[in-house]
Amino acid sequence: MNEEIKKELAETFKGEISNTQEDIKEASRDTSLFTRTPSLITYPTDVDDLATLVKTIRKAKERDNTLSISVTARSGGTDMSGGPLTTSVVASFTKHMNHVIEVGDNYAITEPGVYYRDFEKETLKKGILLPSYPASREICAMGGIVANNSGGERTLAYGKTQKYVEELEVVLSDGSITTFKALTNTELEEKKKLDTLEGDIYRKMDILITDNMDVIEKHKPKVSKNSAGYAIWSIRDKDTHTFNLAKLICGSQGTLALWSKAKLGLVVPKPHRAMLVIFLTKMDILPEIVQRVLTQNPESFESYDDKTFTLAVKFLPEMLKQMGLAKATRLGIDFIPEMEMVAVGGVPKMILMAEFAEETIEEADAKANKAREALSDLNLQTKIEKNEKESEKYWIVRRESFSLLRKNLHGLYASPFIDDFVVPPETYPEFFPKLNKLLAVYKDHFIYTIAGHVGNGNFHIIPLMNIAKAENRKIVLELAPKVYALVISYGGTTTGEHNDGIIRTPYLPLLFGEKMEELFKTTKQIFDPINIFNPGKKVGGTFDDIERDMLRSNT
Ligand SMILES: Cc1cc2nc3c(=O)[nH]c(=O)nc-3n(C[C@H](O)[C@H](O)[C@H](O)COP(=O)(O)OP(=O)(O)OC[C@H]3O[C@@H](n4cnc5c(N)ncnc54)[C@H](O)[C@@H]3O)c2cc1C
C-alpha cells in the first residue's frame, strides 16, 4: 500500500515522502506513555500539497474500505496524550509549513509548523503575544497549540488558545480547502446552500447544535479550562450571534480537519511583574489561600510540590548546564537557600507562585503586597520577588520539572496518565485527601510529582515508574479510572489542556455521558465520514489501545 501511495503522490506532491528508519522512529514517539510505528512520513510544502495528500489517502480508502489507512498531523510532537501517534501516514509540518505569514497590530497569521519560540520572536517585534502559550513553549509548535487548545501559566488571566483562534484555513476530509471563521446568520445560511462537504458540515452541525442545545448546555464543562471532547458548546457565540467552526477545530487533535493557516488574536502583555511566593507546610488551608489570592487578580497562580522541589535541587547542575555561564552562576547563587532547605529537611509541602502583572513595577508590587496582607492571619512563610530576574528560579522549576524528570530518571519513566485533571478550587479540602488515599495504594510502585495551575484547579500529577514491568503498566488502567471518577464527582474534567489522545479518549463517556458521546460521534461522522483523520482519538479509542501501545521500556 505504501508503494502505491508513494507512486500516486510522486506525481503531484511537492514535499518529501519518507520511510527511512530515522524518520519513522522520530514520528513513533511524542511525550506520552505510548508508541506507534507510522508507515510513511510526509512533509507537505503548502496547503495544496496537504490537500493532495488527503485526496490520495481518501481515494485509497474508497478503493478499499477495509484498509486501515489514515493521515495524522504532527507539529512539534510534544503531545502528552499520544495525539500525533499513528500506524499509518503522518503529515509533518515543521519542515516546510513553518512561516509566520503576517503580524498585525493585534493579530498574527501563521502556519502550523512554526515553533512557538520563533512565533513569539516575531510577535514581540510588535509588542504582542499569544498569552495561552504552554510550558512546553521552547519545544512545541503552533500546530499542536491550536489542535490541543493549549493553555499555560497566563491562562488564569487570559484564557486558553480557543479564545484567540479567529480563523483557520483547513483541509477537509475530501481534500477540499476552506476557511472557518465567525459567520453571521446570513453568512451561515449562504454556506448551508453549498453543494459540497463544507455545505454539508454547516447544515448538519447547525442542526446538531440547535436540536441538542439543552443537553450540550447541561454537559459542557463547568471548570475554567477544558480540552476534553469536542467543543460543540463553543461554536455559537451568544454575545456576537456568530457561528464559528474554527472554535471546534481548535482542540480536536486533527480528527476533524487539518489546519494549514491560522489567524490568532494577540494581546499586549503588561510590562512589569511582581511575585508573591508562598511556602505551604500544610495542605488544608490551600483553598482558603487560593480564594484570598484570587481576589487580587494575579496574572498567573502556579504551584509545585515538595518532590518537584527536591528533584529540581538534585538535578540543578544539569538544569543550569543548558543556560550559559553568567546565567548559571547567578541562578546557582539564587538557589542556595533551596539547597539548604533540602539539606536540613525543611522543604515545604507546596510552593505557590502568584504573579501580578501591571503597567508599573510599583503597581505590581502593591498588588503582591495586598495579596500577602490578605493572608497575614494564616501564619504563612511568604516572600515577594520584585522583578522577573528574582522570580526566575521559581519559573525554571515550574516550567522545567517535567523535562527534568524525563531526562534524568534512569530506570523510571515520567508517565503521564493522570497528568492534567481540573477540579473547582473550592473542592480542594475534600478532594485532595481522597486523591492522596487513592495514590497511597501504589506507593511501592511509583513516586509522583504534582505541579500545576493552582488558581485554575488544574494539576499535573506525573508518576515516575518502571514501565518495563507489566505490574506497573497495569496500574495505568487501574488507577486512572478511579482518579477520573473522583475528579468527575467533584464537577471536574479529565484534561484541562493536554487533551484526550490515546490515554483519555476511552474516558469521554464517563465524563460527558452517553448522549454527549453520541453527539461527538455524529460530529466526527459529519466531518470525516470515512474516518481518515487521526482515528481512535476523541472517538473510537479503546482501553485495549492503551494496553497494546503502552511503552515497554523506560527510554
Ligand atoms: C515539558 C512539557 C510541558 C507541557 N506543558 C504544557 C502546558 O503547559 N500546556 C499545554 O497545553 N500543554 C503542555 N504540554 C503538552 C504539549 O506540549 C502541548 O499540548 C503543545 O501545544 C503541543 O504542540 P505540538 O506542536 O508539539 O503538537 P503535536 O504533539 O505535534 O500534536 C498535538 C496534537 O495536535 C494535532 N495537530 C498538530 N498539528 C496539526 C494541524 N496542523 N492540524 C490538525 N491537527 C494538528 C496532532 O495530530 C496531535 O493530535 C507540555 C508538554 C511537555 C513535554
Please outline what is shown here.
The chain is α+β, with helices and mostly antiparallel strands. Helix content is about 40%, strand content about 15%.
Key descriptive features of the protein:
about 550 residues; alpha+beta; eight-stranded antiparallel sheet; five-stranded antiparallel sheet; 19 strands; binds flavin-adenine dinucleotide
What does this protein structure show overall?
With 555 residues, this protein is an alpha+beta fold. 42% of the residues lie in helices and 17% in strands. The chain is built from 24 helices and 19 strands. Strands 12, 13, 14, 15, 16, 17, 18 and 19 form an eight-stranded antiparallel sheet that branches. A five-stranded antiparallel sheet has the order 5-6-11-7-8. Strands 1-2-4-3 form a four-stranded mixed sheet, with helices on both faces. A hairpin with a 3-residue loop joins β5 and β6. α13 (306-314) crosses α18 (388-408). The radius of gyration is 23 Å and the shape is globular. It binds flavin-adenine dinucleotide. The site of flavin-adenine dinucleotide has 37 residues, from β3, α5, β11 and α18.
Mean pLDDT: 93
Uncertain spans: none
**Bound compounds:** flavin-adenine dinucleotide
Query: What percentage of amino acids are in beta strands?
Result: 15-25%
Rg calc: 23 Å
What about the largest sheet? 8 strands, antiparallel
Shape: globular
Number of helices: 24
Structural class: alpha+beta
Q: How many E-type strands? A: 19
Ends apart, CA distance between termini: 31 Å
